[in-house]
């Protein structure tokens, strides 16, 4: 019996995971998205005693995948602007190219500044203290144009026309807030402020669309339970419920098909925040999905939310992860119904700059040499993230597979729109681990080096 299925395999490994040393030098790494020799599947057989068996059931499907990617926050754009045009283009290709790069197809941008910026904090409607502008007559995204954000996103879209962009806002304009500042505070009470902020977000989406950058979706407030000394804004779930309804109306009136994702904060607070919104009929109807961050709590909350609100998609909109523990965490996101994953902060430089976060960041996907700005290097996290993003296509569906265990290997499996199967396998242990895949009528056996991830693409021979 000829099975006629080919297996292509790529490996990436961790090295000095999360070490600050990656900011200062390009440490050597064993495997960097390295393709192994192709092979074929065989007939099912009795498992060897040292093998972990992963059973795959392609006929059992779960969520559809929107995309996997990173962020194009202003810190990264600022560092890109220091490069020669040729090197800048090289980096952008490395991010979105499906054949030779990471194949990122979902990019997060900030609506106004975030904490990761080299600039003075700004919104699109900054006014002298004490003034208001409810008609938004002074609205402008000119700063985004001047800083090269628009050019950068436009160039990414040229390199990958299928790329989807979503936006998140860190703070309303200062005049709308209780502090009179982009930092801390909350949106002022009163429907006039909710309406003004909805118009502000709608105008941002419209301005980007007019420049050839349609927003696929938007979160209305990054981390709405956080007040801190950078752009931030506390927003109660009740106020966000009002906002999502009014913003949906504003977008529809302008003919903008921008999907609205609520929350955009940690697993640990998801239930308390999302239920007052989604149990409100009008707010539920205006909401397309739930956005989550992974800084507190566990991914299992996403499965609970999906069970409670099955018509709402789940998105992992921000996390930075390192090593094979991080790769395993990403596969847990997908096994718990996430339809996307986005890394936060793409490229700082070797001075760990430039940003205005209150802490010291861990290594980013790419690092720029501050003394020679055309020189940069990729950290292992770039390659470990690409083990997912290069091979799992937009429109893929997660399929059923047995997990394995952290003591051997773990995995997550998908079927791509072209019918190929993709299985990402992670070995967090200090030893090489043997495994075998078993599906209807065939099996494939191999092993994975210590502290490494593998992606297997299984397809019929042409």
Automatic annotation (TrEMBL):
> Which molecular function term from Gene Ontology is one that the record holds?
glucosylceramidase activity
Matching InterPro entries:
GH (IPR017853), GH30_C (IPR033452), Glyco_hydro_30 (IPR001139), Glyco_hydro_30_TIM-barrel (IPR033453), Glyco_hydro_b (IPR013780)
Please list the residue ranges annotated as the Glycosyl hydrolase family 30 beta sandwich domain: 395-456
Q: Does the keyword Signal apply?
A: yes
- Keywords annotated in UniProt: Glycosidase, Hydrolase, Signal
Q: Which SUPFAM superfamilies does this entry report, sorted A to Z?
A: (Trans)glycosidases
Superkingdom is Bacteria
Bilayer-spanning residue ranges? none
The UniProt similarity line reads:
Belongs to the glycosyl hydrolase 30 family.
Q: Which PANTHER family match?
A: GLUCOSYLCERAMIDASE, LYSOSOMAL ACID GLUCOSYLCERAMIDASE
Question: What is the protein name given in its UniProt record?
Answer: Glycosyl hydrolase
Origin species, per record, is Paenibacillus paeoniae
